[in-house]
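User: Structure please.
Assistant: Input sequence and predicted structure:
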Amino acid sequence: MSIIIKSEREIAVMRQAGRIVATVLDILSRQVRPGMKTKELDVIAAGEVERLGAKPSFKGYRGFPANLCVSVNDEVVHGIPGERILREGDIISLDLGASFMGFQGDAAVTVGVGEIDSQARELMETAEGALKAGIAAAHPGARLGDISAAIQNYAESRGYSVVREYTGHGIGREMHEEPQIPNFGLPGTGPVLKKGMTLALEPMVNVGDWHTRVGDDHWTV
């Protein structure tokens, strides 16, 4: 496994790529409303990324047909935006990538459509807490498994499961670099983390079982 160490200059560019992604996700989150089609969010995402001087990363990447992944309710990741109409009480995950000055930014956010029930809110809070636990475990001298274990332990201690077939990943000039970062694992295992590594943590938290399947569009999980 070869994990690329980034220079301070490279990390500064990556921070800007990340800020662009975060800014657009915030804009999208404020646009989500009952009655809109998911493809409307894809159009907004592309326009805002370009307005901020970057390029959407996902469209055409490994054949993905859209700028934005839009996953609704029991869809975990890689949902394709289209004619689906959002309804009150849905929860929707928005996953966006952007390329800026040769480096990638990648992030996701889950938001409620109108008023959501307490279980949906708790699920979202658990996923956010798992992300924060993983980030807290990521520091020079720790091991990759410390991140995975922190995410798993946080989610499972609250009665949820973590998806095991899909992972976080390294990121840099490429969207997916080494290492893969599972959302489950044992502390004290895996590569030692070093200053300059750039990692995309991606906790995926389920109500009930952790198993998933891919839909008929060959993308939506």
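Residues 118-211 form a domain with the Creatine Amidinohydrolase fold (CATH 3.90.230.10).
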